[in-house]
Design brief:
405 residues; alpha/beta; UDP-n-acetylglucosamine1-carboxyvinyl-transferase, Chain; 2 domains; four-stranded mixed sheet; 13 helices; 22 strands; globular
């Protein structure tokens, strides 16, 4: 899809989409609970569909009505034979479900998805499987597993994706013995780990910080069915609030003031970018990278550290943004763990922008185009997390035309 955006000033109120991070966690918690849970605030994004599909494959029943999913939980210790979980392009779904597939040990489980998805690191799980004697066979677009995860004192590097920690935290409470997870410093994405702990607590499952780097997980716990509402998403709300940094007047509704979401820090980063050329560490909020780079490019530039993991997202987000911002006259230097944005001769893009099959790249570029006008190819990538993104920005005065590419 090709999106053509005219020079516009965004103004009005917009409802924040439900938190994708929390929605994954709430759906999985419901899928592991005995009984029926009702989870409200689930978008019809591709990532949510992937998690619902995988829960269904594991034996849970998921009934969808608008933004509500009614989930009848499954027993991971009695899984169906010849399981095949289709993760599409969702890294969260893949990493969250791998430990879930290691509860029965009775059948081989296949997880599949795009080749790019399986090019992203899974080594934490591979090492655990090797140590515990679990069959682990990774191919270009699939992973086959057979075996049973055992309680353990896990030691995991703290600067890898928190999705590995979350995946383990879903199933360790269900094992017979207690477990610990020790994070080897430096620890990044701590906020996402705390989001997981918060979600588990909703379902009556307790995980405690034993000290600042060690999680204690008591075994023999049970998930309890609940009715719950998914909170608004700060990581996607950032794209709407970015309009205010570019001269707009947008009010984002539906966000929890005391949310544990790490991406809420955009509320201090945007003002810093308006005042000068700050140094901002994004190791705990990597999903904000593209929109922060875009605002920096339109304003006074910025130095961003902790960017290493941007290479491991839907695309290499640092390189992709450097390539696209160059079309606006913005120079970007990408290093191993930092990105420097230098505004130079900001102008309307001299060629069509590329969305790089990445929802956050498309949304960040869309915000920037309201200053200049222009078009983006591959705009359909927004379906991954916010399929109604263009409708939402149209509702606040952004002129958008969409065409089949």
């Amino acid at each position: 899809m090709r999106a053509v955006i005219k020079k516009s000033t965004a103004s009005g109120k917009v409802l924040a989409p439900p938190s994708k991070s929390m929605a994954h966690r709430m759906l999985i918690g419901a899928g592991l609970a005995k009984g029926i849970s009702v989870i409200k605030g689930i978008s019809q994004s591709e990532d949510m569909k992937a998690t619902i599909d995988c829960l269904t494959a594991l034996g849970a029943k998921c009934e969808i009505s608008d933004n509500t999913v009614t989930v009848t939980g499954t027993d991971l210790k009695n899984l169906p034979e010849n399981l095949h979980l289709k993760c599409r392009e969702s890294g969260s779904t893949l990493r969250f479900f791998i430990p879930l597939c290691l509860m029965s040990g009775k059948t081989e489980v296949t997880l599949s998805g795009s080749e790019y998805l399986f090019s992203r690191p899974l080594n934490v799980y591979e090492e655990i499987c090797l140590r515990q004697g679990i069959d682990y066979k990774k191919e270009s677009a699939s992973l086959k597993l057979k075996g049973t995860l055992l309680s353990d004192n896990f030691r995991i590097k703290g600067n890898i994706s928190s999705q590995f920690i979350t995946g383990l935290l879903f199933v360790l409470p269900l094992l017979n013995e207690d477990s610990t997870i020790t994070l080897i410093p430096p620890v990044e994405s701590l906020s996402y780990i705390n989001l997981t702990i918060q979600a588990l607590k909703v379902f009556g499952v307790e995980v405690k910080w034993q000290d600042e780097k060690t999680l204690f997980v008591k075994g023999n716990q049970q998930y309890k069915a609940v009715d719950a509402l998914v909170e608004g998403d700060y990581s996607n709300a950032a794209f709407f609030e970015a309009f205010n940094a570019l001269g707009g007047n947008v009010e984002v509704e539906g966000l929890l003031e005391d949310s544990l979401q790490g991406d809420r820090v955009y509320k201090k980063h945007f003002p810093a970018l308006l005042k000068g050329t700050p140094t901002i560490n994004i190791s705990d909020c990597p999903d904000l990278g593209p929109v922060l780079f875009a605002v920096a490019g339109a304003k006074h530039g910025g130095v961003f550290t902790g960017t290493r993991r941007l290479r491991l997202k839907e695309c290499d987000r640092a390189q992709a943004m450097a390539q696209e911002l160059k079309k606006f006259g913005i120079a970007v230097t990408v290093r191993e763990d930092s990105v420097v944005v230098y505004p130079h001769d900001f102008h309307k893009p001299d060629e069509t922008l590329d969305g790089h099959n990445d929802h956050r790249i498309v949304m960040a570029l869309s915000v920037l185009l309201t200053l200049t006008g222009g078009e983006i190819l591959g705009a359909q990538a927004v379906r991954k997390s916010m399929p109604d993104f263009f409708e939402k920005i149209e509702s606040i005065g952004v002129e958008v035309s969409r065409y089949d590419a």
